[in-house]
Amino acid sequence: MLTQRRERILKIVVGEYISTGLPVSSEAVARKGLGVSSATIRNEMMELEEDGYLTQPHTSAGRIPEDKGYRCYIESMMGGVQLSLVEQRLIRHQFHQVEGEIEEWIRLAAAILSRAVRNVAIVTLPKPYESRLKHLELISLQEFLALLVLVLREAKLKQQVLTLEEAVTQEELSAAARRLTSACGGLSGSEIATRGLGLSRLEEQVTRTVVHIMQAEEEEAYEDPWVDGLRHMLSQPEFASSSRLAAIVEFFEERNLLKSLLPQVLTGEGVRVVIGRENKQDVMRDCSVIITRYGIPGEVGGAIGVMGPTRMQYSRAIPTVRFVSSVMSEMLGELYGS
């Protein structure tokens, strides 16, 4: 448990290091008006170093935060930082200027975040927690061959060619499609599978295929995210060495982002901050990720966040991610409610 004075010193060190990127000396902390001498502050900083909050890169240098120090700094601000009303209005205005296409919202959200925090923004398309049937069509291709066109509630289109067990006319296919759409519209794959419908042989075959497609869709991970602002992140001094820069670029090119991040964000609600060595992959051990969900609880949602060096402007990034997520959730609610 930190004393009040040590907590204030830690906040000053973290804030100064985020602003300057340079180790923070006891003299620099003393100038912040704590009312104690540099010697007292130096002793407190030594205690913070022994407890794992700070580290000293060189013997004669000041201190820089460790992951534990960043964590304490972040937890002290999580509930208190908000975007200004002017910024909130501007972001809402930008969203209401774009067409009502989800893909456009995704691109805009990523652009807003990357500009606001000067780091990488990550936004996935919304994905239903459970796929539901909206409509299906059956189109005759040959006597024993038909195309199944399946429209899911989230406007996803799935197609599959069926080899029929018996010769069927287009009229029979259309009648089966109308009956199944009427009987199964709005249902999930598991609900369709367990519902007794008194189906014909053709309808049973189509239903089995529909259930298989819907269950496969639910098992899929999030699609590759829309990423914006990599240039901002790579321009920062933490990535000045060619080896570190190449490792980050390769990480993004290999599309390992979601594999590393989403299992962590999906374990809880609210904004999650993953700092430095809390990240699973070595290439991200000097990075922090601020990420959360957006969408309609229990129905449809995606992930949205930012990634940058651990020396990130958390007081800026956390409220921006939180607010953009809330706007995305509102717009999805309006779309699905309309």
Task: Explain how this protein is built.
With 338 residues, this protein is of the alpha+beta class. The chain has 3 domains: 4-77, Winged helix-like DNA-binding domain superfamily/Winged helix DNA-binding domain (Arc Repressor Mutant, subunit A, Orthogonal Bundle); 85-125 and 222-337, Beta-Lactamase (2-Layer Sandwich), CATH 3.30.450.40; 133-219, Enolase-like, domain 1, CATH 3.30.390. The chain is built from 13 helices and 11 strands. It has helices spanning 4-20, 26-30, 38-50, 67-77, 85-97, 102-117, 170-184, 189-194, 201-219, 230-234, 242-253, 257-265, 314-337, and strands at 54-55, 64-65, 120-123, 127-128, 133-142, 145-152, 157-163, 226-228, 272-275, 287-296, 300-309. Strands 3, 4, 8, 9, 10 and 11 form a 6-stranded antiparallel sheet that branches. A hairpin with an 8-residue loop joins β1 (54-55) and β2. α6 (102-117) runs antiparallel to α13 (314-337). The longest helix is centred in the last third of the chain and has 24 residues, at 314-337. The chain is elongated and about 90 Å long. The protein starts with a helix and ends with a helix. The mean pLDDT is 86.
Features:
single chain; 338 residues; alpha+beta; Arc Repressor Mutant, subunit A; Beta-Lactamase; Enolase-like, domain 1; 3 domains; six-stranded antiparallel β-sheet; three-stranded antiparallel β-sheet
